[in-house]
Specification:
By secondary structure, the chain is mostly helical. It is about 80% helix and about 0% strand. It has two helices and no strands. Helix 1 crosses helix 2. The longest helix is centred in the N-terminal third of the chain and has 58 residues. The chain is flat.
């Protein structure tokens, strides 16, 4: 009886281990994408905040205030970048397809509004004056 329970527990442990490994491999591409996008954003933030750090050190502020002001500057820059990426996503995935559909529809129905209406020539019929 104990041998069967040990065998069953061992089998369940191996199955759980395999599922954990496969789950990790499923999230690996997402991790690589985040790494590829995250490092450039951090580099941009560091390049933009580095002059602020140096300027505050130059003025002789205490280290704590320099780091606090630098962290605030990095936070504001990150918020601006996040808002810009959000706006870019909306522009690419919502505005661009709608604009392309509008252009396609206006191109397809371009000649339908200008129908020739029968007009009377001034030389025929009544006096134009």
């Amino acid at each position: 009886m104990w041998a069967i329970l040990k065998w069953l527990a061992m089998r369940l442990a191996i199955v759980r281990l395999v599922f954990k490994i496969l789950g990790f491999l499923a999230f690996l591409p997402i991790a690589f994408i985040l790494k590829a996008v995250g490092w450039p954003i951090l580099i941009v933030l560091a390049v933009l905040a580095l002059p602020i750090f140096l300027l505050l050190f130059l003025f002789g502020l205490p280290i704590f205030l320099v780091f606090a002001a630098g962290a605030l500057a990095i936070g504001v820059l990150f918020a601006a970048l996040a808002f810009g990426v959000f706006a870019l996503k909306i522009a690419v995935f919502v505005v661009l397809p709608l604009w392309l559909l509008w252009r396609l529809a206006s191109w397809m129905f371009r000649g339908r509004d200008r129908r020739e209406s029968p007009t009377q020539k001034p030389a025929e019929g009544a006096d134009p004056a």
